[in-house]
Design goal:
The complex is a heterodimer of chains A (241) and B (299). Chain A is mainly α and 241 residues long. Chain A has one domain. Chain A is 79% helix and 0% strand. Chain B has twelve helices and 13 strands. Bound molecules: adenosine-5'-triphosphate and magnesium ion.
């Protein structure tokens, strides 16, 4: 019963992303196009390594996992559809979880597309084991960000949710050096960037490529999860149905 | 007749608005109760408490013996809510199949429910693209698809055309025969009274009257008389037992305590009086009278 309901929720959410051209364009296609440009401008001449997926992939995964659940939730509530679901006996946690789960295949699809672009445009050498570890780290590591997304979606209207989430994501992504490498940025930006959870997610993914230290980054993401859970819980306490 | 819905002394406040001030109500198996009352009476608030969307300040609601705050109890309800919209990304058929599955029913029942509500032709369209009346029918199809024990319908006839309304009343009558309890709010008073077993009238967050449609009609004694006459309205108002008289086009409409003595006097005063009609007050008039604030202050 519960499993059937969950399957249905996830199916609806997968369709919601696939059948909404704006979501597909902004969270899937655009990051891939940007990446093609980015790798042409900043990619090393002697062939890129998977580090380029670790950094840019962090942005691309967050563009799916951080935007779509919150915006989708706000939209469902604005329409009154969330009330229909609540009355139908679907527990709220299921509705929320389904939105996050449905974002995962799209996040993986973007990562795959980035990999193809990196190989074709940036002549990246493929190491399947490393790439898989990077993918797993990025998708799992994006989950705490989904909590913030749902928190915003619980309170804001659809348009506001999209604006707020972009306003949180974009600056974090830039100061964390995920679009333009930190070497070309002023020191003060770099030092702010090191406080961003996005930076630590990218570093944790990078550690899968170069075997660097990872425990500190994991700890920051753990802390982010705790804060995200508290913020989401508070947002729900006072959310209107 | 065992009660499927039992509402006991329900209170609800929104900030400083007392939306429900002690409502008690029950609906039995196979019973059809129409909930009437003016805008702002508290009907939607009552419905939202019954379907578990809001937690009442005090009092209790029990649906088939359970608390609607529990998801498993809500699954047994068929609900039409006011102000609901559908996602842009699901088709009509997907929405109804989903409703069946969420209620623990068989998604294979969806085609029949769609057919019952006249939506088979639009089943592949996106739900949000339906017209207002079609969306209302879609909510009904969702509510009916899983054979609920209780239907809770908040203004389900809004936006329905004449033939859709007729089909809708027939569907409800059929469900009632199968033992489904029905609680329905509406402003289409006469249509609801024609099919309801019992009418509950709310005003200002309270139940102000309750009974069969015929019992309620007796709340407003007297008769409505209309006729074509040359008599001035003032002269008619002066006649014994006339409560009120108004001129409309070339006719007068008179409310009187009793019809016969008034008509006798009118015929004496105007022997050209014609087009005479005498009727019992409509339920609309009963309702207006029951819920007028003048009346409440007096009571
Ligand atoms: N969310 C809310 N916040 C504050 N006040 C509310 C809210 N919802 C309803 N009210 C108030 O509660 C009272 C009852 O409203 P309700 O919607 O239950 O009336 P109703 O009988 O359904 O009216 P209608 O016939 O217009 O649908 C009204 O005074 C309304 O303004
Ligand atoms: Mg209402």
């Amino acid at each position: 019963m519960t499993a059937q309901m969950m399957r249905l929720e996830v199916r609806d959410e997968l369709l919601a992303i696939r059948r909404e051209p704006a979501t597909l364009f902004f969270s899937v296609l655009m990051p891939v196009l940007f990446f093609a440009m980015f790798i042409g401008l900043f990619g090393p001449e002697d062939g890129a390594d998977a580090g380029i997926i670790a950094s840019y992939g962090t942005f691309a995964v967050l563009a799916v996992v951080m935007l779509s659940p919150g915006i989708g939730l706000a939209d469902a509530r604005d329409r009154g559809w969330l009330r229909v679901k609540r009355v139908s006996g679907t527990p709220l946690w299921m509705t929320l979880l389904a939105k996050v789960i449905a974002a995962i295949p799209y996040a993986l699809a973007v990562l795959l597309a980035l990999t193809v672009v990196a190989v074709l445009v940036g002549s990246m050498a493929v190491n399947v084991g490393v790439l898989l570890r990077v993918f797993v780290v990025l998708v799992l590591g994006a989950m705490p960000f989904a909590l913030f997304s749902l928190a915003v979606g619980a309170r804001a209207g659809t348009t506001a949710a999209a604006a707020i989430l972009n306003a949180i994501l974009m600056p974090m992504v830039i100061v964390s050096g995920l679009w333009f490498p930190h070497d070309i940025m002023p020191d003060w930006v770099v030092s702010i960037g090191q406080f961003m959870p996005t930076y630590h997610l990218a570093q944790l993914a990078q550690a899968q490529v170069d075997g660097g230290p990872w425990l500190g980054h994991l700890a920051v993401l753990g802390l982010t999860t705790v804060v995200g859970a508290i913020v989401a819980a508070l947002a729900y306490r006072s959310a209107r149905p | 007749m065992s009660a499927i819905l039992e509402v006991t002394n329900l209170h609800h406040r929104y900030g400083d608005v007392q939306a429900l001030a002690g409502v008690s109500l029950s609906v039995g198996e196979g019973e059809f109760v129409a909930l009437l009352g003016p805008n702002g009476a508290g009907k939607t608030t009552l419905v939202r408490s019954i379907v578990g969307l809001i937690k009442p300040t005090s009092g209790s609601v029990s649906v088939a013996g359970g608390d609607p705050a529990r998801a498993s109890v809500r699954q047994r309800l068929g609900v039409v809510q006011q102000d609901v919209g559908f996602p842009r990304t699901l088709t009509v058929a997907e929405v109804v199949e989903g409703a069946a599955a969420r209620a623990g029913g068989d998604p294979g029942a969806a085609p029949r429910a769609l057919d019952e509500m006249g939506l088979s032709d639009v089943r592949r369209r996106r739900a949000s693209n339906l017209s207002g009346g079609q969306q209302q029918r879609l909510q009904l199809a969702m509510g009916l698809v899983a054979d609920p024990v209780l239907l809770v319908l908040d203004e389900p006839t809004v936006g329905l055309d004449v033939s859709a309304r007729r089909a809708f009343w027939a569907t409800l009558a059929e469900r009632r025969r199968r033992g489904t309890g029905i609680l329905l709010t509406t402003h289409v008073v006469e249509e609801a009274a024609a099919v309801a077993d019992r009418v509950v009238v709310m005003d200002g967050g309270r139940v102000v009257a309750e009974g069969t449609p015929d019992e309620l009609r007796r709340f407003l004694p007297g008769r409505r008389i209309s006729a074509r006459t040359t008599l001035p309205v003032e002269a008619i108002r002066a006649v014994d037992e006339v409560v009120s008289a108004t001129a409309a086009n070339d006719k007068v409409v008179i409310t009187a305590l009793r019809a016969e003595p008034v008509v006798r006097v009118l015929l004496q005063l105007d022997n050209n009086l014609n087009d005479l009609e005498i009727a019992a007050p409509s339920l609309d008039e009963v309702l207006a009278d029951l819920t007028s604030h003048r009346k409440k202050v007096a009571a």
